[in-house]
Amino acid sequence: MTHAIPLLSSHGCAMPQIGFGTSQLGDCGDLVATALKAGYRHIDTAWKYGSEKGVGTGIRVSGVPRGEIFLVTKVSHEYLRADAFAKSVDESLSNLQVDYVDLLHVHWPSPEKVPLAETMTALARAKRDGLARHIGVANFNIALLEEAQHHCPEPLVTLQGEYHPYLDQRKVLDYCQRKGLIFTAYCPLARGRLFNDPVLNDIAKTRGKTVAQIVLRWLVQQGGIAPIPRSSNPARIAENLQVFDFELSAAEMQRIHALARPDGRIANPEGRAPAWD
Ligand SMILES: NC(=O)c1ccc[n+]([C@@H]2O[C@H](COP(=O)([O-])OP(=O)(O)OC[C@H]3O[C@@H](n4cnc5c(N)ncnc54)[C@H](OP(=O)(O)O)[C@@H]3O)[C@@H](O)[C@H]2O)c1
User: Fold this and answer.
1) Domain 14-192+223-230 class?
2) What is the atom index within ligand 1 of the atom nearest the CA of 105?
């Protein structure tokens, strides 16, 4: 039986708690249609991934009404000047063949090259022009997030950042919780690095679930976190959604928290990544 996907809310935004990630999936129309037919209602893409056209195709062939889908894209760090930003948003909408996205992100901060005030004004303008229903940022540290909120005339609803059992994100998560921001967890399966983990396999065996389901359950059970796993395999796409029919015990949650390690971060591009919290 498929359980309903809970919604997370922030400033009037209602985000389905699990999304389908599309980086590295390229021409992903069939996979996106598969995900939508399996029950996903939140699709994560970015101009940078080259998957926007595939996402648009997938939405159309799925037959799922546009209004039922929470569609997310991002403006890349090369396009943070006001003019370039607006052009990038237009290009994304054209790639996706839609009039608006539900959530628009700044993909990576670049405050040394473009003043944050300019970028955040451009982001808010996209919302005011009706091109994005909600706005957020990805890969910002707390200091940049504070500055971004200060400069942004519209509320930010989410911070998208890396999170999985090998990465301690307590500081950032506490901050988001205090400010009422949803935390969208990317690389929730650590890009496959955790599938041989003995603790995760032990819990999975006890529970009769897969390691992916244990990890995704651990993420959603913390509250306020929306993981966006990617898979190119239809069975795994469906499997990753089946995490709302069981609960981990406090001891199991704690065992998974204890797996965090100093070298756990995966997405850390030199020259682009901020000083992480
Ligand atoms: N904002 C940013 O800067 C940023 C950065 C990175 C990612 N993201 C977003 O977050 C999404 C997810 O992150 P990610 O794609 O880097 O990695 P991920 O979702 O952590 O891991 C994807 C990998 O896990 C495998 N996998 C998925 N489900 C599985 C299952 N049930 N059992 C076994 N293996 C499974 C996939 O292989 P198969 O395909 O073979 O199933 C793939 O190799 C991205 O697609 C993107 O939308 C955003």
Assistant:
1) alpha beta
2) 1
Give the amino acid at 258. Answer: A
| Mutation test residue for ligand 1: of 105, 187, 193, the one with most atoms within 8 Å of CB | 187
At residue 1, the pLDDT reads 55
Q: How far is residue 147 from each of residues 104, 142, 143, measured CA to CA in Å?
A: 18, 9, 6
Task: Quickly count: other Cβ atoms within 10 Å of residue 167's Cβ.
Answer: 21
**Within the chain, where are the H helices?**
29-38, 52-62, 82-96, 116-128, 142-151, 170-179, 198-207, 211-221, 234-239, 250-257
For residue 240 and ligand 1, the question of a CB distance below 6 A is answered with yes
| Mean pLDDT, rounded, of the chain | 97
What is the reported pTM?
0.98
Could you tell me the pLDDT band of residue 262, with boundaries at 50, 70 and 90?
very high
Q: What are phi and psi of 14, to 5 degrees?
A: -120, 105
pLDDT in tens, 149-205: 999 999 999 999 999 999 999 999 999 999 999 999 999 999 999 999 999 999 999
Q: Rounded distance, CA 71 to CA 45, Å? A: 8
The span from the CA of 224 to the CA of 112, in Å, is 31
- Distance from residue 211's CA to the centre of ligand 1 (Å): 14
